[in-house]
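Reopening this ticket.

The earlier resolution said the output was attached, but the attachment link was broken on my side. Pasting everything inline this time so it's all in one place.
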Amino acid sequence: METSHEQQVIPQPPSIKDNDELDVLPEQKRIQAEDLARTTERLPDFRTLGRQQDGFATELGSSDADQIKKAIEAAQHKPLVQDTIQKQKQPIVYTIAGYRVSHPLPDDARIGWTAFSEAINPGGSLGIPATQGKKKSIIDNLFSQLYIDDNNNWQDVGVVILIGVSVWCVVRWHISGLFLCCLLFVKTYFQISHERFTHRATDDIKRALAQVALASSDFERVRWLNDFVQRFWLIFEPLLSAYVIENIDTYLVDYLPGFLDSVRLTTFTLGSKPVRIDHVKSFTDTEPNTVCMDWSVSFTPNDCIGMTETQLRNQVSPKVVLNIRLGKGFVGTGFPVLVEDMMFKGRMRIKIQFMSKMPHIKTITACFMEKPIFDYVLKPLGGETFGFDVNNIPGLQSFVRDQAHAILGPMLYYPNEFSYDVDKFFAGELDFNKANGVLAITVKSCSKILSSDNNLNPFIRFYLDEAQELEKTSIVEDTRTPHWNETIFLLLNNLDSILTMELRTTNSTKKAGKRLARAHFDLKDMKEEEDMELDELELPMLRHGKLITTLMADMRYFPVSKPIQNPDGTYIEPAPSNSGVLRITIHECKNLGSNKINPYAKLFINGKERFQTPTFKRTSNPKFEKPYESMVLDRTEFYIRVNVIDSINFAEDVSIGAWSGYLTDIMAKQDENEFWWHLNKNGKEIDAKIKLSVQWQPVALEGLAKMGGIYTKPIGVIRFSIWSARHLPGSNRQDPYVRIKSGKQVRATTEVIFNTDVPEWGEFHYVPVHSLHENLVLEVMEYSSSSKDKSLGSTLLQTKDLVRECKKDKLVWYEAAVDKYDQKANLVSGSAEKGYLVYTAEFYPTMALAKKEQDQVVDPMPVVDLHHVPIRYTPDDLIDLASYSTGVLTVKIHEIKAPQVYECYCKMMVDTLRSQYKTNVLKGRVLPFNVTSDAFIKDAGFSRVAIEVKPADREETDDVKLAYWYENSDRIIRNIQKRARAKHGNSESPFDPYTMLVHDDNDEGEWFDMINPVGGPAKIRLSFGYVPLLNYQVNPDESLENQGNLTVTLLSAKNLKAVDKTGTSDPFVKFIVNGEQVHKSAVIKKELNPVWKNETFQVPIISRVTASFRIEVFDWNQIMGDDPLGSGGMTLRGDMVESFTSRECEIPLDGAEAMSDSSVRVRLKWEPQLLIRQKTQTSFMGTTRRMTTKMGSTAFNWSQPPKNTLSSIVEPTPPPSIVNEHSSEPKSRSMSPSSSSPSPVSIPIPKGILTVYVVEARDLRGDIDRLNPQVTVHVENHPVLKTKKAKRTINPYWNESFSQELSGKDVQFELKLKDAHTFHSTDVGMLSKSVWDFIRPPLVTSFDEWVPLEPRGSGEVHLKISYQIL
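Inline output:
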């Protein structure tokens, strides 16, 4: 029989055929989130209380979006870990409101008053058809409207009808007997109705009088309840006291003051007299399901009034004895503290809300209507006999009372209330600290920050409901338009809190910095979203009601996966996942040894310390009961280690034992072991045990890849025309340039114009954009050759002002909102606006196709894209990417395998010698960068991609590099198409053209040999993607073929004019480019048809299209001035010159001095090449024309086609030696697995200057109130540094340094940290190592890390070391 009433089923886990079948649908995700939100309704989120780490982190310990995405993808591709405990198939259990029944109730039954009434059950519906009212028919509704009044007296209507029918029968048929019977019936009915009416009226009057009396009276006595409590108290109090003694130590240790060694509760009783309820006042004007009462309660255990002789003889007063120990170690002493004669009185309001389901009480709310009165006797010394009550000290009692009211007021004093959810308590879901979901936030950027501060170093911190900090972003230095693109995770208990995002800036005086503005976000808004996703949020950040900036962010909420109940009562098991929320609880330890030890536990996750329990004094069986929660991206790679340590005063802490294991193994064995695990010491198992449990809640992290901070497909390219700037701040003459930033990355940079106050660039730059909220910053910088470049001001371009989003059904594409966006933008520098930048921005969209969703059929060969632009296809029905010469090339740098330890970063360049993307610094032989970026391809036939590996201590503009690689863009695009063809041929599924336009995250890439690597052969693994640009034609003056070197060979001249007396001339030729002379030829004596030999020169041409190329021929005179013989010119555009080909041309001479048929013959060769230009305001030629760097002259010299660098995957050989930066180009760049490896040799350390900064120390061993740390440093037994003495701290800060010249030999570095006092000093810790253990010049020349001191546990010191090679 099919039923729809509530029933609980414990199903068998479904068989898993395909992980995709178990993806969480949006509807299921919403149900889970709403259920979890109801779990903690009316409860604050206490997740942040007691956290002992700065912010939240996964097991990776990083918020880097690419690393997180990589870990999640790896976890999703791994086989799912199945639970070892097999769930047995259980019979269906039927329930009604939480009570079991033997069989389901029939749907046609009518049970309870709600089945006969239209009124609503105040406790909520049971959801069972048998208890619900039946729908009335049309006849029933008509009858009720015609004959039933508001009082439902249908009987009276029936009697009237009966009398009328009887009279009609008597008149019609003369039936008198029937009429008499009707009269008797009427008489009986009237008598019974009158009696019922009298009884009901009497009851109503009594009830009304009782209600009036209840409302008018102040209170009612509840002597029966006090009598009940008195009898029950004598039975319950011993159990309550035993529970307090057993568990109170766990809580006392959390609030132990620093000057106390330990506190132990040895005696506890509340006495034999219970709490008394003096009187109760009830309120009647409440909701139908709510009872509200005011209780006057008192606890006066020493009050003897009304007690019998037996009760007086057996009376026990409350007594609490705390054994408090002062001092440390053997110098400490303990004494008892007695608390007795406790008294309490107060008036409390109690609200009870009922519900239909068991336990029928939903919530209990309590508060004090006025400040309660309490008193006690506190005797810290002397005990019961000689003890002195400290409350007799003047002012102490009132001070303690006021402090108690200040603490309890916000929680319990009206109008504040404390609410307890009884329903969730019995359901086992009332855990304030338990995470029920994960909120992923991608912080993108801020608009311009309005602040009076000159220098801003902004960051964002997050917290809930004014609690402590949960997480914070990184600090972006010296900017008013910060970009982060960071993804962080917050563990949440519910979605009923207010998330506060606080914008702060660091400063030198306060570690936490200064608050600039705040933005508040109500997490309840997440419930309104279908997929619990909010994209492209713009959150206004205010200070004192004034808008300071706008924060751009994305949010995703991922609830923990729980079973979902179907309408038929069965459950859908949650989708298994290797990602989730892990709750680790360290319960207790036993058999640790002597009772004199002071144990505590440290929790390590993947080798990193994450949590530490409080220290329990003088016990071998500590009860920690401390939970810790962590977001787990991949539980198969999650490793847990717990160290149990004995805290020893004035000495190093000693390890008692340790235990470790992988999460998957712990989950499989914890039930079998009953959560107990043996500790190990020195590799052997010992008798000591630790009780530790783990609770796993899977989380399906679907949709995370859509969030910002993770590379997404470009929507188009913005073309910037940088024209000029005026009124820049600073001195009159500067060296300005403009850079365009997206987030932290500089995506384009103009040339530097030297020595000018009115710079004009006239340059064009292209920047790919990926969303409407990817704002770009245009910043004018002043170049400095000796220090860091200085910002002269910046302006913000919001992409949404230039780009329009188009939507149709579920299709989304982007178009230009305006044809040209001309701006004369004010520049912001510090808190002021000064100067402006003139530029133009244009948007060109990339090809957009419909993305195939799950089980959705798409056109395998659309004729046009979403912009209605025709698509080109190959004969085998693939998008012909190679036919599109302009587009956006995506490059992913997977990793580099170096021959030796590199500390370096990579910079990517496409058709420019300036960096368009820069990675973070990594150190090692294997460098897993795993970063993705892109760049605009202007002309695939000429365009090249280059990646340069640079030392960490070198700027991007330095020529020094460790290795580099480059390739032709056309070859890369054809390889992308080739791989797509192979993938399509091996796949049985229909081809989706959309996949050709996005970079495949699963592409492992290919290995390529690097050029000129330092130390030996090196390889780089790269993968690529390409999306064409639509409706774009490169202007001739922007073509890559437009810039390069022009080689000019002067051949001859003919029919020159004779100006000398001898009838001849002494001709020579001047060559002028863009109005400036670039070459002067040799003089040919006495010749009208001169021929020059070896007269060749090369000139760099910035723009071949706009260049002016002229010649002037003169007759040389030794004394008099040179006589002109004519001049001529030619254009370099079009077919006059051809790339990589020499062409001879005749330049006719004109002018009054020239003959009609005079001409000069030259040979021209054009070689396209990128140039590093040093540009003045007047021209490109006025200063030194420096050519490209060593790499640039090769990578971006199109006269030298690149060779195939594809390499087989082999390990690099050890380094034979250091390769000189300026060594010649190798003849071959391929690396064969069979090539022999030269024997490694040692790398000499060059002479240089060592600089060491002793910055700070942390977690030093010692008393925080007495420790005065001071550092002394010796190099080769010679003192070189003695820091100042820090006062009373275990986390001192010095930032003091020394420098010393070293010859390269082995140098011993010794650091000693002491507790310095006037007449004595005590060693705290030391560090003794070779300097070359920190750095290894010339490869590694800097060091910036925390170093542990010896002996172990003494603390850490922060060192910054640099080495300048002489």
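Reporter confirms the inline version is readable. The longest strand covers residues 887-910. The two ends are 92 Å apart (CA to CA).
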